[in-house]
Design goal:
Distance between the termini: 17 Å
Largest sheet: 4 strands, parallel
Shape: globular
Number of helices: 4
Strand order of the largest sheet: 1-4-2-3
Oligomer: single chain
Number of strands: 4
Strand content: 5-15%
Length: 121
């Protein structure tokens, strides 16, 4: 079982976006990065694709999901600002299920989740 935990692709800076940050989309560079992720995971045995509710995260993994004929599952425990305990409960649950998954989150969540997992052993 493998969990591929990825940060969303390039979405530009929030100060350059007029709408709610959760609705900030990928840039052209970000779409190219999402396609590169799809190529990198083309041969992976992906059984689930989960994403933060943020549009930029969903757009990052949408091509991966499409390539594996899966839907993107929106998961609040991957949202920006999520507590480490919430993110790690999701990761431990997925590990227990034994299904390979791709998860997209944010630069503040991924490091704290990995640190918490390392402390958990």
């Amino acid at each position: 079982m493998t969990l591929h935990l990825v940060r969303h692709a390039h979405a530009g800076h929030h100060r350059d976006w007029d709408g709610p940050d959760a609705e900030r989309p990928l840039t052209a560079k970000g779409h190219a990065q999402a396609e590169a992720l799809t190529v990198a995971l083309a041969d992976a045995a992906v059984g689930r694709v989960l994403s933060s509710p943020a549009v930029r995260c969903q757009q990052t993994v949408a091509p991966v999901a499409a390539g594996h004929t899966l839907a993107v599952e929106v998961e609040d425990r991957l949202a920006e600002g999520t507590r480490a305990a919430d993110a790690t409960s999701l990761l431990w649950g997925l590990a227990a299920d034994g299904v390979d998954a791709v998860l997209c989150s944010h630069g503040d969540v991924i490091p704290i989740a990995l640190d918490a997992l390392a402390r958990d052993g």
